[in-house]
Design goal:
Length: 274
């Protein structure tokens, strides 16, 4: 009798547990199927592509209001059905397949002129405006630059900028002025308009970079995706970043400085030096 009662109690306990077990998969269906830790350079677009879901699904699941900004180290819930590309994100690049990024240059540039900064300009070059600081160091200390550029036509001015290094060049955008400077590794440069507006795609749809490289975004990305620059520049080394920048126009071109790479001299004939 006792055994029968004990068996009945055990059976009742199993039956009471079964509904919970049966509902567990359904409860998990609306919860996280993966947890992704945000790394430097990640965007919601890239994360959504990796898990074959949408930006909206990830943003809603994680209560992200600004979909263009995610914090490095944040743990993101990936809901719904997903299939990651593989356990290692992407296969490693072949050895030597991509060139390393150029090293950053120090700022300000040290004075290289033996008689000190700033020496008087060469005879015959009388300028009402003269460059100062880093631009002055380059202009006064290098007769070739000085003779090719001629005199400044305005004083040096700072501007709000973002930059991005690429496999085959370096890009600087004047955010407020809607101008993009593209400097190729072959020492040619071009100026392009920045045409991205609110509502345009943040990045180039359907483009996945190789391991360790990036797809440019916003105005730089739009320019890159809608022109021949995708082939000419190749992939970006890093996401775009905010930098301090100044420029000064000259009769024969302009000088451009960024806090990352120092001074570039852009000549009117489409060539540049550094």
């Amino acid at each position: 009798m006792k055994k029968a009662v004990l068996f009945g109690l055990m059976l009742a306990l199993v039956v009471s547990i079964l509904p919970l077990a049966a509902f567990t998969p359904k409860a998990e269906a609306g919860s996280c199927k993966a947890v992704y830790v945000v790394r430097r350079g990640d965007t919601l677009v890239l994360i959504a592509r990796r898990y074959h879901t949408t930006v909206g699904v990830i943003a809603n699941a994680n209560h992200i209001k600004n979909r263009n900004h995610i914090v490095v180290g944040k743990r993101l819930c990936i809901p719904g059905n997903w299939t990651p590309d593989d356990d290692n994100d992407w296969p490693p690049p072949p050895p030597g397949h991509w060139p390393p990024p150029p090293p950053p240059h120090p700022w300000p540039l040290p004075c290289q002129h033996p008689s000190g900064c700033y020496p008087p300009p060469q005879p015959g070059l009388n300028c009402s405006i003269t460059p100062v600081q880093g631009f002055g160091n380059v202009w006064y200390g290098n007769s070739t630059v000085r003779n090719r550029l001629g005199c400044p036509t305005a004083v040096e001015q700072g501007f709000t900028a973002v930059d991005e290094p690429f496999c085959n060049g370096y890009v600087v955008e004047d955010v407020n002025g809607k101008v993009i400077y593209v400097l190729f590794n072959n020492h040619r440069w071009e100026q392009r308009p920045a045409t991205w507006t609110q509502g345009d795609p943040v990045t180039v749809p359907g483009t996945m970079p190789p391991y360790g490289f990036y797809v440019p975004q916003y105005s730089i990305g739009k320019m890159w995706g809608e022109s021949d620059l995708m082939q000419r520049l190749s992939w970006a080394f890093t996401p775009q970043r905010s930098v301090s920048a100044t420029r000064q126009p000259f009769d024969g071109g302009m000088m451009l400085w960024t806090s990352v790479n120092g001074v570039y001299v852009l000549y009117n004939d489409g060539t540049w030096s550094r």
